[in-house]
Amino acid sequence: MTHAPVLKVENLQTRFKSVQRGKYVHAVDDVSIELYPGEIVGLVGESGCGKSTLGRTIVGLEKASAGRVLLDGVDLSTLSGAALRNSRRALQYVFQDPYSSLNDRQTVGEAIDEALLIDGLRSADERTRRAKELLEQVGLPHTARDRHTRELSGGQRQRVAIARSLAVNPRVLICDEPVSALDLSIRAQVMNLFLRLQKDLGVACLFIAHDLALVRQAASRVYVMYLGKIVEHGPSQELYDHPGHPYSQMLLASVPEVDPRVEKLRSAPLLKGEVPSPTNPPSGCRFRTRCPLAVEDCALRAPASHVLSPDHNAACIFAPDLHGGKRSALIHQAA
């Protein structure tokens, strides 16, 4: 990437007080990511690994304990008043559940009008015109403006949520598993909508998901997160073809094959055990308690990040061998 990132997260930490006295939940721990104009970047990992907390901290729904979030090079923590509000408008969030993110008592028009008023459109005629444009962009008829959100299907509600996010002309969308709550038959339609909007509008998108097949379809780059930390990141195709972290390999192995004959024959290792508590994470490498390759060194110190190729890094002492395919057989045997 030769141009500057539109969004840069530097050493971000988000901690919450635990129910255990004197302890904290380390939900996001020293995370750094970059998002460039007009690209879709995937953020993947199991439930409970901190993906949603990271997204919510980026947009200000959660307070960072340390680190910085920079939008076009400006640290958002240094802003206040109108400058902060303007920057926040450039960062929009699409929630996972379209049934809880919209007010059932509102019409579609009222839901979108709120965002348009925030964006400075005071004229009712201008808001009506803009709402029709937004509904058309997300594939809904303009007549949907007069319907209550409770009358809509899940897919339609998510389209309204997307339209509302686009109303303020954002530069970055944080999409928190935006299709996981939808029926399988609707997911592809909404994913295609995201891809088209990203292409047409040039909005940068951080796409949070646990479905690696969806991320592979959409993202140019992928960050893999485990227990609050980024363990691997790189270009999507290379990371999928040559993962350099055992967690990435096992996540990919967990994706079912489309062909049932291939699925039946493969002997891929699946992830075993539960994600450890973020209140008391393991020493050294956080994945070591579930890793088939773990050795004594893994418990002694946090693994360094190995550069495997341009823009592809993995934090594992075995990363060079895994990336080169020398360790995949051992993972299968150990599993």
UniProtKB/TrEMBL annotation:
GO terms for cellular component: plasma membrane. Residues 7-252 form the ABC transporter domain. One of its GO terms (molecular function) is ATP binding. It is found in: Cell inner membrane. It is a peripheral membrane protein. NCBIfam families: oligo_HPY. Probably part of a binding-protein-dependent transport system y4tOPQRS for a peptide. Probably responsible for energy coupling to the transport system. This is Oligopeptide/dipeptide ABC transporter, ATPase subunit. It comes from Sinorhizobium medicae (strain WSM419).
